[in-house]
Amino acid sequence: MRVVLVGPPGAGKGTQAQFIASNLSIPKISTGDIFRANVSGGTELGKLAKEYMDRGDLVPDEVTVAMVRDRLGEPDAQEGFLLDGFPRNVPQAQILNKMLAEFGTHLDVVLELVVDDEEVVRRLAGRRTCRSCGKVWHVVFDPPSKDGVCDACGGDLFQRDDDREETIRHRLEVYQQQTAPLISFYADEGILHGVDATGPVEEITQRAMAELRRFAD
């Protein structure tokens, strides 16, 4: 099965992508993982991507498209995949369709994780990251024993620039302007399925898999 996962930042795409891909026995292909690896490695691509990501803006299409094309050409993606973080806008979706046509295939389903803006802000603005080991805590959902100190290694916790409320709200504005039109695009193609992305992670996964099973049937 060839799946695209869409939804606003903070909808839980990364978490759900892992569970869904595992359940379907297909690779999870995340542009976010690729960007983060380049940022932490200090590559030229990483430095460029970080400038956009820190502002809450999107990485330029040409950079993203080149990475995705290479990844979809790898052997493990030939029988199916789950794309998380791509496409982010209608032009990318059109490029993806052409790309898959060149590979002699097409998308089967686009799964939308549905969550409102205030829930997104609550989820993301509460995150705190350890400067030493990188573990992420949450002031409400997963707080450390001592405020500002990582339970895992004793390192200092900080709020990343892209987890600040003003940046999150900007990211949501960018999403509405550039990514939300994907919903209409894929609805018109008849392959869009929405899933309520609120509640426990396990329940969201169950809803997602139920949708996918209905589609497959």
TrEMBL record:
* Binding residues for AMP: 31, 36, 57-59, 85-88, 92, 160, 171
Supply the CDD domains for this chain. Answer: ADK
Which pathway?
Purine metabolism; AMP biosynthesis via salvage pathway; AMP from ADP: step 1/1
Is-annotated flag, keyword Transferase? yes
Q: Where in the cell is it found?
A: Cytoplasm
Domain spans labelled Adenylate kinase active site lid: 127-162
Q: Which Pfam families match?
A: ADK (PF00406), ADK_lid (PF05191)
Catalytic activity annotated for this protein? AMP + ATP = 2 ADP
The UniProt record gives the binding positions of Zn(2+) as 130, 133, 150, 153
Q: Which GO terms describe its molecular function?
A: AMP kinase activity
State where ATP binds: 10-15, 127, 199
Residue ranges of the TM segments: none
Q: Where is this region: NMP?
A: 30-59
Q: What are the record keywords, sorted?
A: ATP-binding, Cytoplasm, Kinase, Metal-binding, Nucleotide biosynthesis, Nucleotide-binding, Transferase, Zinc
Instruction: Name the principal localization, coarsely classed.
Output: cytoplasm
Query: Does the keyword field hold Metal-binding?
Result: yes
Region of interest (LID), residue spans: 126-163
Give its E.C. classification number: 2.7.4.3
Note the subunit structure.
Monomer.
Q: What role is this protein assigned?
A: Catalyzes the reversible transfer of the terminal phosphate group between ATP and AMP. Plays an important role in cellular energy homeostasis and in adenine nucleotide metabolism.
Q: What is known of its domains?
A: Consists of three domains, a large central CORE domain and two small peripheral domains, NMPbind and LID, which undergo movements during catalysis. The LID domain closes over the site of phosphoryl transfer upon ATP binding. Assembling and dissambling the active center during each catalytic cycle provides an effective means to prevent ATP hydrolysis. Some bacteria have evolved a zinc-coordinating structure that stabilizes the LID domain.
Say which family it is in.
Answer: Belongs to the adenylate kinase family.
Q: What name has this protein been given in UniProt?
A: Adenylate kinase
Source species, please?
Sphaerisporangium dianthi
> What's the gene?
adk
